[in-house]
Amino acid sequence: MAATDLFLGLDLGSRTTKLVEMAGGKVIRFDIFDTTHDSILKVRARLDRRDYARAAAAGYGRYLTSAHLDCRVVTEITACALGARFIDPAAGLVIDIGGQDSKVIQLGNGSGAFTEFEMNDRCAAGTGRFLEVMARLLGFSLEEFGRAACETDETVALSSMCTVFAESEVISLLASGCDRKAIARALHQSVADRIFPLAARFDARGDILMAGGVALDPCFVDLLATKLCRPIVVPPDPQLVTAVGAALAAAR
Q1: Of 3.30.420.40, 3.30.565.10, 3.20.20.140, 3.30.465.10, which CATH number belongs to 91-234?
Q2: DSSP string, 104-156
Q3: Is 1-88+237-252 CATH 3.30.420.40?
Q4: Tens-digit pLDDT profile for the chain (252 aa)?
Q5: Which one, out of 20, 86, 219, 242, has a CA that is 20 to 30 A from the CA of 80?
Q6: One fold for both 1-88+237-252 and 91-234?
Q7: Strands 91-97, 72-73: parallel, antiparallel or unpaired by DSSP?
Q8: What share of the chain is helix, strand, coil (3-state, %, to 5)?
């Protein structure tokens, strides 16, 4: 394949790194792996000396990536908007919950324009990291955590959304004999309650699309959709939305 046909998008996130190759307006290859101290080396190994027309990087590590690889830098907001509109042309609002932050982006007219966004990057509550910590505390894998929360309608009262204080509260609830599934559901509800005000302030015309790894959690998606009184579209491989957008930015 000629270099003029091949574009690379990278999303170096706080928890995982995503790599997407696009050619002819289609995704032809992708990879997802844990972000570590040597993520740039992992990226290089996966590129396998392939010849790209252009490349672009988004995510927390975008500047580090551009310093070591020949690629332009694009913001997460821009890349996520581009990727969302490409994946779902009817999308009007994107909810992207990553490892360390959460974003709600209102899309405008055009292939990837956005008009406004809200972002929470000051507190771990309302992020994938919060759910990851709580899942581990309850003795669940992330996959088990979401399924367990779906398997009950029971819940418990939580008084704190702060990750540190919530950990202590969960330990106390376990010690008092509360059901793990009920605690899991309450934790999911607390994150949905945290994201809801960010999304509710926008007039969502079109589909609501969810991006990021938390979109793979069926309980969270269902609880947030219930609060919004709207269905939420979860694309295949929702973790790739921003990397797809980065590849599209590279192709422009």
Answers
A1: 3.30.420.40
A2: EEEE-SSSS-EEEEEEE-S-STTSHHHHHHHHHHHT--HHHHHHHHHT-S---
A3: yes
A4: 445 689 999 999 878 899 999 999 999 999 999 888 888 888 888 887 788 999 999 988 888 887 788 899 999 999 999 999 999 999 999 999 987 788 999 998 766 678 899 987 666 667 888 899 999 999 999 889 999 999 999 999 887 666 667 888 999 999 999 999 999 999 999 999 989 999 999 987 899 999 999 999 999 999 999 999 999 999 999 999 999 999 999 998
A5: 219
A6: yes
A7: unpaired
A8: 45, 25, 30
Please tell me the pTM assigned to this model: 0.90
> What is the per-residue DSSP string for 197-236?
HHHHTS---SEEEEESGGGG-HHHHHHHHHHHTS-EE--S
β-pair type (54-58, 7-12)? parallel
- Domain extents for the chain? 1-88+237-252, 91-234
